[in-house]
Amino acid sequence: MTIASGLREAFGRIGLRFGRRDDREPGASNVASLGCNCHMAHVLKTLGLRQWSGPFDWIFTMPGMVRDCLADDFVTLIDRTQLETVPEAERQGPDITKGRHRLYREAHGLECVFNHHDPAASPADYVFLTEGVRRLRAALDMTGARNRLWMMSHLHTPRPVIEEIAALLALRPSRNHLTFVQLEPGHGRVEVAEAADLAPNLRWLTIRIPSPPVGLRLPEPFDDAALVALLRAEAAREPDLLR
Fold first, then answer.
1. CB 31 within 8 A of CB 50
2. What are phi and psi of 174, to 5 degrees?
3. 14 has pLDDT over 80
4. Separation between Cα atoms, residue 159 and residue 104, nearest integer Å
5. Residue 93 burial (CB count, 10 A)
6. Which of 26, 48, 146, 239 has the fewest CB atoms found within 10 Å of its own CB?
7. Where are the domains of the chain?
8. pLDDT tens digit string along 149-159?
9. How far is CA 75 from CA 18, 72, 82, 113, 130, in A?
10. For residues 151 and 178, what is the distance between their CA atoms, to the nearest angstrom?
11. 43, pLDDT greater than 50
12. Integer Cα distance of 204 and 135 in angstroms
């Protein structure tokens, strides 16, 4: 057993004691969210596609941060010296915006990464984070595994950043396809456009919507239902790479 695998097993045992262990594990075919917040994971859960919890299901990220996490195999994300509790006076509420990450705050302007959890102060929350990382690592490192990965952001995202993420995913032993959803608020109705000339493991959808997301959904039920319907139709299209 390597030191890394021993640590992951130990974290798993700790997770069982804290009652936070998720018994669902990656397999030969996986669907997972790469962020940029809990909205994407919530849609996957609504569609019955979310199979296990990963690190990007419940934290605030930017695509550049996700790229950095993939580039160093999540080492910096779970580095305890980088984790910091947000003082209560600086939080948006007593039980939200609880934790930040020093490096990603400096590099990507993220004032909060951990909204409802605080891995800097809570051993259980730290295990929750590392277990999610372990599962995503396992899916990416499983030779031949078919991983359909999703990311959604309502902030403008430079195309090269997403292409860099797709390139990093292509380096793993698994077969990985990323669908990136760029939400564009401020439009009168819900519309969708597809980007062209992308790598085989990448698909980019721009979905124009009237208003930006609020937490797990769009504020208008009709718009939220339309977004979910579009993503349901997209999920039904199997990428050639994963066939």
1. yes
2. -85, 170
3. no
4. 20
5. 9
6. 48
7. 3-20+29-242
8. 999 999 999 99
9. 23, 6, 11, 16, 10
10. 7
11. yes
12. 25
pTM for this model (two decimals) = 0.89
76-100 tens-digit pLDDT? 999 999 999 999 999 999 889 999 9
Tokens 């939200």 label which residue? 96
Nearest one of 239, 152, 164 to 192, comparing CA atoms: 152
Kindly state the tokens that stand for 180. Answer: 């990136």
Which residue is it, tokens 């990382």?
133
Q: How far apart are CA 67 and CA 44, in angstroms?
A: 21
- Asked if the bond preceding 36 is cis, omega within 30° of 0, the reply is yes
Closest to 156 measured CA to CA, from 11, 36, 26: 36
Bridging pattern class, strands 191-194 and 202-208: antiparallel
Mean pLDDT across the chain: 92
| Cβ pair 61, 81 in contact under 8 A | no
**Which strands, in side-by-side order, build the sheet including 191-194?**
29-33, 146-153, 175-184, 202-208, 191-194
SS (H, E, C) the chain: CCHHHHHHHHHHHHHHHHCCCCCCCCCCEEEEECCCCHHHHHHHHHCCCCCCCCHHHCECCCHHHHHHHHHCCCCCCCCHHHEEECCHHHCCECCECCEEEHHHHHHHCCCCCECCCCCCCCHHHHHHHHHHHHHHHHHHHCCCCEEEEEEEECCCCCHHHHHHHHHHHHCCCCEEEEEEEEEECCCCCCEEEECCCCCCCEEEEEEECCCCCECCECCCHHHHHHHHHHHHHHHCCCCHHHC
Whole-angstrom distance, CA of residue 224 vs CA of residue 230:
10
